[in-house]
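JOB MANIFEST
job_type = single_chain_structure
chain_count = 1
residues = 130
[input]
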Amino acid sequence: MRILVVEDESIIARDIAWVAENVAGYTVDRIVSNVDEALAIISAGQVDGAVLDANLNGQNSDAIAKELKRQSIPFFLLSGVISRKLLPPELADAPFLEKPYSEPDLLQYLRNLRKAATSLGCSWAHPTIL
């Protein structure tokens, strides 16, 4: 499974990519830090799932999340700045992981991406953390 990591903090992006590749078994094709790059990659059909920081250097990533949802590409949002309450209504039910997160929580959210990608329909319900 190819995932896109959209994160503006490079140390966090590398951590997500490391867990995704070395623990969850994904391929991280790209790490990007802005809306335009992410939208171009998604439009090119190069991803099966995404990890999306809700705030990219002060710019919200709603457009990316909406495009992922429109294309039924599973994703989850994460943020240490934006709370779930501040998400637009159409994204209020998207999986949301609050920073700082633990590695087991991140791994569970990554596993839920695979479940969503292999299911017939994409559910935007909150993942269950075990």
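[summary]
The first helix runs from residue 10 to 22.
The mean pLDDT is 88.
exit_status = 0
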